[in-house]
Amino acid sequence: MARTEIKPAKTKIRLDKLPSAAAFENKSAYEARLKKLQTLLMRIQQTYWHEKRRAVIVFEGWDAGGKGGAIRRMTELLDPRGFHVWPIAAPSAAEQGRHYLWRFWQRLPEPGTFAVFDRSWYGRVLVERVEGFAKPAEWKRAYDEINEFERLLIDDGARIVKLFLHITPEEQLERFRERLTNPYKRWKLTEEDLRNRAKWDDYVQAAEDMFDRTATTIAPWHAIPADSKWHARVRCLEIVTEALSEGVTIMPPPVDPGLQAAAAELLGIRIPYDG
Questions:
Q1: Where do the H-state alpha helices sit in 108-199?
Q2: Domains in the chain with CATH codes
Q3: Per residue in 116-125, pLDDT tens?
């Protein structure tokens, strides 16, 4: 099989130019749309399981941007045997002694499963760039390394969906305030989150450079306005279901003839053949 050509996406993503989030009429409308998409993703997961397909779903975005909530809603109806969520923090001492992509190789999905990354290899060109954990020569060459990494996965049959949840500084401040005043949410907030806020403009520049260099026709970025949690959760599901169902027949497999015969003989149940 020939190598897939890497071409840059035609549309430039600028965070201050994202369209406003569509509002839901009420909570019932939101929940109905959410449930419909969750059920569709469950059907897609079943197809991927039966056909041994693989998918990689990447979440990036601001601290308190709603990644965790979106992931919870996305996986709520899925069979836990068919997906794994990987929360990515700072690399361990052992991981620091290897190429930064090494630890992500260990977390790629097995045939028939999804791997969901709550932060990802893009840390090299985001937090590691802004905070100085990577030298300029290291993060500058990472764009091409990441594009090649993703091309390798796609050529090997995996689907990749990349989501960036964008909130405004004002919304982030409100969410920080909520977490600080709620004892059951305080664990989500760290001193590092507060310090990072002071470098907002640097992170915007890093994110937009990331979009420019790694949004490709084979693995585009989807930047989602996320001040509205309802909108962000539904939009994530819309993008994921559309990407994973493209060119895939979302139908259950035909009944196994052996199972059909055994059911008739042992249980007296005749299963209509639907193949």
A1: 127-130, 136-155, 169-181, 191-197
A2: 15-267 (3.40.50.300)
A3: 999 999 999 9
